[in-house]
Amino acid sequence: MTSRPLATLSLAGRDLVSMRDFSREELLAFLDEATQFEGNEQPILRGKVLGSLFFEPSTRTNLSFSSAMQRLGGSVLGFADSKVSSTAKGESLVDTIRVVENYCDIILIRHPLEGAARLAAESTELPVVNAGDGTNQHPTQTLLDLYTIRQKRGRLDNLKIAFVGDLKYSRTVHSLIETLTHFDNELFLISPPTLRMPPEFIEELDARGTAWREDEDFFAVASDVDILYTTRIQQERFPDPVEYEKVKNAYRIDRASIERIGGRVTVMHPLPRLNEISRDLDSYPGSAYFDQARNGVTVRKAVLSMLLGVTRT
Amino acid sequence: MSDATQETLGDRRPEGAAETFVKVSALREGTVIDHLVSGTALKVLSVLGMRFEGAVTIGLNLDSRKAGRKDIIKIERRELTPAEVARIALISPRATFSIIRDFKVVRKFTPELPAVVDGLVRCPNPSCISNANWVVTKFLVVRPDPLRVRCHYCERSLKKEEIELL
């Protein structure tokens, strides 16, 4: 096994709590490092332990981080349900972190309360990775989205990117859009009126000089875009089921709709999907949603190794 | 230094109109908080704890050349702490503070909001960790005017009218 310290831009010891904490240069460092892990599984994290604290259930993120850690030779301990932790006995989050820090080298936390990862990071000297805090941040999802965009289109600037569906509540969309303000792209925000992007995000786009256009009509803008990022419209957001019925299939994407807009767009989705993406799109070459899931492991390998201050030779 | 003895509650009178302003006794020692956003004076008094040694004079919805309408508060025998000034600045960012000693304005200032506001604002997001654990709240001032702050923990962005002081 050979490992080397990061020579140029070291992120060793940093927390990955919010995408707001990172510069464009640092984001690109994560992505560049991730490309080095494609198909490469040197056991550089042998002897390192990931403390994995899932205070609410998760399948993909939990398994993906465990896979990344174990494939690099590290090990994982923790819990996947707060009912089996001391939280069920009333222990505070800060106390839980102060105890767990003795057992591991890096802490991964998912928590239903927003800001929990920030509080955890302030409670320990160990690096803390946010695996989702309520509706706030899920930074490794954003990193894997950026990674996938760059992988499919070869760049992160000068792209036309359309976000489609629930732009009001989608944590994934909010985080990706905010992070894309580091880059020079044109954004299209396509949603029903009830699920428009909240004004504070629009203000941020304006403040950062990012070009954007809002529309309800998918076909009015979609023919010109490079990336189509679709989201699930969540039924629980609609107190009136009739309103949900009106919009649930408003932006259903299928092979015919992709061909109508030129057939060259990259289709992304954070998964799980319901009806937004037809299964007949799974064989379309531009469909990238399963690549996103695979890239999740690659990106998380880079995150774990960089924050631990070790990387591949 | 200007003379504070001739101050009235109100600063504009039509040319030739009769003197209808209510004269208030001049402050020997104390603080004048002027140019408060109209309608905020009672909230400011609430922030100050409503415990005062001397007289407190309040003017509500007065004419103002700058803002159209304003509130003003004169507090006898009290100078405010930096934390109190910061709280008032969150309620009314353009308020001016005049410190009066021996009837003279010895200092007049408009406070600048700090980049970070600790322990002054409650996060209105019920799902924020700062409402569930024992945490000193922290808000980042995104921009001072119009005021917008962001919770350090849940990252929820608040406008001035959404801010709830602790």
The count of helical stretches of chain A stands at 11
Residues in helix, % of chain A:
25-40%
Q: Indicate how many domains the architecture of chain B comprises.
A: 2
Query: Which word captures the global form of chain B?
Result: elongated
Over the alpha carbons, how many angstroms does the gyration radius of chain B reach? 18 Å
Instruction: Tell me, briefly, the overall form of chain A.
Output: globular
The number of strands of chain B is 11
Structure, explained:
- The complex is a heterodimer of chains A (313) and B (166).
- Chain A has helices at 24-36, 60-71, 93-100, 116-122, 139-153, 171-180, 199-207, 218-221, 241-247, 255-260, 289-307; strands at residues 49-54, 75-79, 106-111, 128-133, 160-164, 186-190, 211-215, 227-230, 266-268.
- Chain A is globular.
- In chain A, helix 2 crosses helix 11 and helix 5 crosses helix 11 (289-307).
- Chain A starts with 23 loop residues before the first helix and ends in a 6-residue tail after the last helix.
- Chain A is an alpha/beta fold and 313 residues long.
- Chain A folds into two domains: 19-137 and 295-307, Rossmann fold, CATH 3.40.50; 140-293, Rossmann fold, CATH 3.40.50.
- Chain B is mainly beta.
- Helix content of chain B is 10%, strand content 37%.
- Chain B contains two helices and eleven strands, in the order E-H-E-E-H-E-E-E-E-E-E-E-E.
- Chain B has helices at residues 41-47, 82-91; strands at residues 29-37, 56-64, 68-76, 96-101, 104-109, 116-118, 121-122, 138-144, 147-151, 157-159, 164-165.
- Chain B has a five-stranded antiparallel sheet, with no helix packed on it. A four-stranded antiparallel sheet of chain B has the order 6-8-9-10, with no helix packed on it. In chain B, strands 7-11 form a two-stranded antiparallel sheet.
- Mean pLDDT of chain B is 84; it is low at 1-8 and 17-23.
